[in-house]
UniProtKB/TrEMBL annotation:
Pfam families: NLPC_P60
Biased composition (Low complexity): 54-69, 78-98
Signal peptide per UniProt: 1-26
GO annotation, biological process: proteolysis
Ranges where the NlpC/P60 domain occurs: 149-276
Keywords: Hydrolase, Lipoprotein, Protease, Signal, Thiol protease
Gene Ontology molecular function terms on file: cysteine-type peptidase activity
UniProt name for this protein: Putative lipoprotein
Domain of life: Bacteria
Presence of the UniProt keyword Lipoprotein in the record: yes
Organism: Buttiauxella brennerae ATCC 51605
């Protein structure tokens, strides 16, 4: 009986053991396959990571290179623009310097004029006069000088056309004749911007005219005298150069050119005024 029990137990054990043995072998066989698959997956993941890293590195290198190229281009453009600006500014400075040099050269070119300088006569001696080069009190541009000279020439032509006509008290017309201030009024009324007064004393105190020293007289300057003791000045003439002036002297005499060096005019001379300047002529 005991023997039968052992046999049955052994059979039962065999029955239970046989179905699970192939599964155990199968599981043992599947282990290396799974490990191999996991290794393949890991290697694939690593290669993917490497390729992505290489791609990222290449892209970053390309972006860095493009950034460097762009910055270099910008720097080159900025340098070119700066160079162009410096060149244009230098060109502008050179042009301005040349224009200033030309202007200064034109201003230096002035005609040389001579005046007659007379010494004060001693009692019993005649007046001694010497021609000297007149000093230019101010330097003006050549274009302005030409304008002044043209106006002076016009005034001189008008005055010279009246030589020989009789003195007329209060006269201001070539048809009737002139007194001293009427002759000056006729010559300058259309050439200057301000109003020319009608009497010699008013002309002498004219604010628009500048005082002139006797050694610096120019053609067209007004010369004043005090002959009758009325006011500061009661007689006026126009300087025509070479120590002479044109005037309408008094009743019974004609319009004439007289020398400033004569004793009578030397004693009664009071001063001179300049009405023809670049600022005053029309």
């Amino acid at each position: 009986m005991a023997r039968i029990t052992k046999i049955s137990i052994t059979l039962c054990a065999l029955l239970f053991t046989l179905p699970y043995t192939p599964l155990t072998h199968a599981s043992e066989h599947a282990r290396p396959v799974a490990a191999q698959k996991a290794h393949v997956v890991k290697s694939t993941t690593k290669s993917t990571e490497k390729s992505s890293k290489s791609k990222t590195t290449t892209a970053s290198k390309k972006s860095t290179a493009s950034t460097k190229t762009t910055s270099k281009k910008k720097e080159t453009t900025a340098a070119k623009s700066k160079t162009a600006k410096n060149a244009s500014s230098a060109k502008t400075k050179n042009l301005a310097k040349n224009s200033r040099n030309k202007t200064s050269q034109l201003a230096k070119v002035q005609p040389v004029t001579f005046t007659e300088k007379c010494s004060k006569p001693r009692k019993g001696y005649k007046v001694h006069c010497v021609k000297v080069k007149s000093a230019q009190p101010t330097t003006i541009a050549a274009a302005h000088k030409v304008r002044v000279q043209k106006a002076q020439k016009t005034a001189m032509n008008k005055l010279m056309g009246q030589i020989g006509k009789p003195y007329r008290w209060g006269g201001t017309s070539p048809m009737t004749g002139f007194d001293c201030s009427g002759l000056v009024y006729y010559a300058y009324k259309d050439l200057v911007k301000f109003r020319i007064p009608r009497t010699a004393n008013e002309m002498y105190h004219l604010r628009d005219a500048s005082s002139v020293d006797r050694g610096e007289l120019e053609t067209g300057d007004l010369v004043f005298f005090r002959t009758q003791g009325r006011g500061t000045a009661d007689h006026v003439g126009v300087y025509v150069g070479n120590g002479k002036f044109i005037q309408s002297p008094r009743s019974g005499q004609d319009i004439q050119i007289t020398s400033l060096s004569e004793d009578y005019w030397q004693r009664h001379y009071v001063g001179a005024k300049r009405v023809m300047t670049p600022k005053t002529i029309r």
